[in-house]
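ingest -> validate -> predict -> emit
validate: passed (alphabet ok, no gaps, 85 aa)
predict: started
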Amino acid sequence: MRYAIISDIHGNLHALQAVLKDIRESNINKYIFVGDYFGDLPYPNEVTDIIKVLNKKYIVSGNKEGYLTNLQENNKDEWIHKYLL
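emit:
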């Protein structure tokens, strides 16, 4: 069994596409994603969409996903003012 362990994509769609191309050529059986799928680069939705449709994957959330959970659970106005200064 061969696993591909992928982390810290941070919305970098082009890098994810390149990695997945390399993985397809390497006869990988399963994917393990270990966090930070979005947060810094411009394609978080596209990265998430690609990960969602992959078969045979395990997904773990990272600290970037934790930030979004905290934002969703807290007062957004307070967060925006606090972090945009």
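The chain has a mean pLDDT of 85.
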